[in-house]
Write a structure and sequence with these properties.
This protein is an alpha/beta fold and 230 residues long. Helix content is 49%, strand content 11%. A 6-stranded parallel beta sheet has the order 5-4-1-6-7-8. Strands 2-3 form a two-stranded antiparallel sheet.
């Protein structure tokens, strides 16, 4: 069994909310001496983010967030001899929030306790920084639960690229046809896993993605509901 991480097993609502990263980058930059306008920074950041995603759409290679922040500052005309250091600090400050703010969904511990030892377990997450993801994994003792922990920031490619799924299946010694992927992001988790030949369980927490229900093998509202399917 393969699981997505945030939005599936773990939550970090203040970090996963739309626009949260922009505000955190801005907070760090201004706290360290950048005199920039929030609206101008946000508007330029959105443009750069969209362009970066478009450039990476063909192979879903990992995204370079520091390059995105730097190009945003250049787009709004911010010049500073220590700009590279300010960008690095903003990225570091942002990453530091993930171990602090990540927590289990209420049902996650029970699910993991129930299936540990019954299945080969893997976690496949789109997260741009390997060391930060590993810090979170250690916080929740994932190393004692999962037989494979794969982070896009370490592989260089994000789901739905098959490379990241192949890495997990290889570490588990499992064929795709014998595996199930559980996740909350349709394109990355469900479409990506189905293209590999895996069965899939789609978490649609608010029931807003009915148009995507035809592809997954099952649809649930929360991670705890996965138990009844197993």
């Amino acid at each position: 069994m393969l699981f997505d991480c945030w939005g599936t097993l773990l939550q970090a609502p203040n970090l996963m909310r739309r626009g949260a990263s922009v505000k955190l980058f801005y907070r760090s930059l201004t706290a360290n001496g950048c005199d920039i306008d929030l609206d101008a920074f946000r508007d330029a950041y959105i443009v750069k983010a969209r362009r970066q995603h478009e450039e990476a759409r063909e192979d879903f290679r990992e995204l370079d967030y520091m390059r995105r922040i730097d190009s945003t500052l250049r787009a709004i005309g911010f010049q500073h001899p220590e700009r590279a250091s300010l960008v690095r600090r903003a990225w570091t400050d942002y990453l530091a929030e993930w171990p602090k703010q990540s927590s289990f969904y209420e049902e996650t511990p029970m699910l993991l306790d129930s299936i540990k030892g019954r299945y080969k377990l893997g976690l496949v997450t789109n997260f741009p920084d390997g060391p930060t993801a590993r810090e979170v994994f250690t916080k929740f003792s994932f190393e004692t639960v999962f037989d494979s922990l794969v982070v896009s920031g370490e592989v260089g490619f994000r789901k739905p690229n098959r490379i990241i799924f192949e890495r997990a299946l290889g570490e588990l010694g499992s064929a795709a046809a014998s595996a199930v992927m559980v996740g909350d992001t349709f394109d990355a988790d469900i479409a990506g896993a189905r293209a590999m030949g895996m069965r899939t369980i789609f978490i649609d927490s608010d029931g807003s993605q009915a148009e995507n229900y035809a592809l997954p093998d099952a649809v649930i509202r929360s991670i705890g509901e996965a138990l009844r399917l197993l």
